[in-house]
Amino acid sequence: MMQRMQELVSLLNAAAKAYYQEDRELMSNQQYDGLYDELVALEEQSGIILSNSPTQQVGFTVLSQLQKVKHETPILSLDKTKEPEKLKSFLQDKKGVLSWKLDGLTIVLHYQDGQLQQAITRGNGEIGEDVTHNAKVFANIPLQISFKGDLVLRGEGVISYSEFERINAGLEQTESYKNPRNLCSGTVRQLNSEIAAKRNVQFFAFTLVQADGFTLSDSKSENMEWLKTLGFSVVEYQTVTADDIETALAYFRSHIESNDIASDGLVLTFDSIAYSQSLGRTSKFPKDSIAFKWADEMAETTLREMEWNTSRTGLMNPIAIFDPVELEGSTVSRASVHNVSILEQLQLGIGDTIKVYKANMIIPQISENITKSGNLEIPKHCFVCGGETEIRALKDGKALYCTNPDCQAQRLQMLCHFVSRDAMNIEGLSEETLKKFLEKGYIKNYPDLFALEQYAEEIQSMEGFGKRSFTKLMASIEKAKEVALPNVLYALGINHVGLRNAKLLCQAYGYDFEKIKVAKAEELVDIEGFGTVIAHSIEQYFKDVHHLLLLEQMMPYLKLQVEATVTNAENGLLKDMVFVITGDLEQYKNRKELAEYIEQQGGKVTGSVTKKTNYLINNDVHSASSKNKKANELQIPILSEMEFIKKFVENV
Question: One of 101, 220, 503, 604 is an active-site residue; which one?
Answer without folding.
Answer: 101
